[in-house]
Amino acid sequence: MRPPKPVCFDEMHDEDGAIRPAYAEYARWLDQQDRVMLRRKGNEAETVFRRTGITFNVYGEDAAEERLIPFDMIPRIVSAAQWRRLSRGIEQRVRAINAFLHDLYHRQEIVRAGRLPERLLRGNGAFLPHMVGFTPPGGVYTHIVGIDLVRTGEDEFMVLEDNARTPSGVSYMLENRETMMAMFPELFTHVRVREVSDYPRRLARSLAACAPDAAADRPVVAVLTPGIYNSAYFEHAFLADQMGAELVEGSDLRVENGRIAMRTTRGYQPIDVLYRRVDDEYLDPLTFNPRSVLGPAGIMDVYRAGGITIANAPGTGIADDKAIYSFMPEIVEFYTGEKPILANVPTWRCAEKDSLAYVLDNIRELVIKEVHGSGGYGMLIGPTSSKAEIEKFTAKLKARPENYIAQPTLALSTVPIFTRAGLAPRHVDLRPFVLVSPGGVDITPGGLTRVALKKGSLVVNSSQGGGTKDSWVLED
Questions:
Q1: How far is CA 435 from the centre of its chain?
Q2: Which of 248, 361, 363, 387 is 20 to 30 Å from 128 at the Cα level?
Q3: Distance separating alpha carbons of residues 321 and 299, to the nearest angstrom
Q4: What pLDDT score does 53 carry?
């Protein structure tokens, strides 16, 4: 008897239960594997992650808790043809975001043309007046971008959100691949998968290409971290090590002869490019939060004088605003002259009276998000929320409607995870990582697949109980 059509798209199996072409070679290999051996390999992977220190911090009300990133050994596989289509859409969107940011901090033509409401900038904390009239070295605002995608069908990918400020997770993409190759080296002789291990080298080259004009032939790159208690500290240290760059904290830096210099065993050495993993608010106590010790005092003056490149540029967070996200189709068309290749998720802007009324009437069927929220925090998933949670969120919506947007509850695609009972489908998203330099756009093949490990859950964030998978893009 024909099985019922699944509610959501299964990336490994079609409607009849047959293996889809992208998974064919992998499925043949998997069928030959002993399940006891696979369980043992899964336990070994967890041990490796713990020994390597691949953890993140979860901040609770009282204390931070360090957790292991759950890793699932069943890869997420995308065909070469599918990836080519996705790459075109990703590049188009990233180019549009960079052009949008330049315009916002200069003539604001998109506002003058009536394509973006001026109210979205007025009083928006992510818009930095300090960047008005200033163009970063090479004209690049978004040096590293993470575009979160969800899949709802065979050729149906949509952008869930843009991460143009300080996208994280690339270290897990790299460690997932290294772990898979260590556990199953023979598998990669059966399935030809595009490489991701060269990302640190490409990142270093891309950042160096964005150095100020006065930089030396071999620009000095450093990674600025808030410190060991930051939730993504492992990634900061990992990327600095892999790039051969120095990992620095604010206390290691100072202004010297019009440059930002870092403390070394041979005295202070000037830096050309600073890959910062510190939010705008804490970057410069002379310009932003005067109580911050996370960034060097005076860096914004050096930056505006052309003495250093900051990646990503201060003020890029305005492109992460979820209310502005809802205008991305118009933004893409305005700056590229083309229709968007990748669609947005339908979005209701609660700041608009009619949209707010619709959201309040249908709150049980919608996902509500804060416009500046991230990590799965500050959101409501209507279908899985209690009556009390909905009532509480309704009060928040009525009090500050401009702080929220709403989206339909999507039927996210599924990829199997390995459980003691066998393979079981779980919902996933995908964060490809994009590098931008004056030389062009460089998209890493694959990215970070995040998976909701709980049955039926749509929340894939690691801080909310999600895990990760290796993401494969097949060779032609």
A1: 12
A2: 248
A3: 25
A4: 61
Using alpha carbons, select from 463, 435, 54 the residue that is nearest to residue 237. 54
Contact 453, 70 (CB under 8 A): yes
Asked if 408 contacts 366 with a C-beta cutoff of 8 angstroms, the reply is: yes
Terminal CA-CA length for the chain:
35
Q: Can you tell me the distance from the alpha carbon of 472 to that of 461, in angstroms, rounded to the nearest whole number?
A: 20
Closest CA to 446 of 105, 147, 226: 147
- The predicted-structure confidence for 129-140, as pLDDT tens digits, reads as follows 999 999 999 999
- In a 3-state reduction of DSSP, which class is residue 158? strand
Report d(CA 368, CA 404) in Å as an integer.
Answer: 7
Both tokens of 139, joined, read 């004209």
CB proximity list for 240: less than 8 A, separation 6 or greater = 222, 223, 246, 247
Domains detected in the chain: 21-212+308-340+410-473 (no CATH), 346-408 (3.30.1490.270)
Structure-block tokens of residue 190: 């059966």
**Which token pair is 306?**
């052309």
The conformation of residue 129, written as its DSSP 8-state character, comes to: G
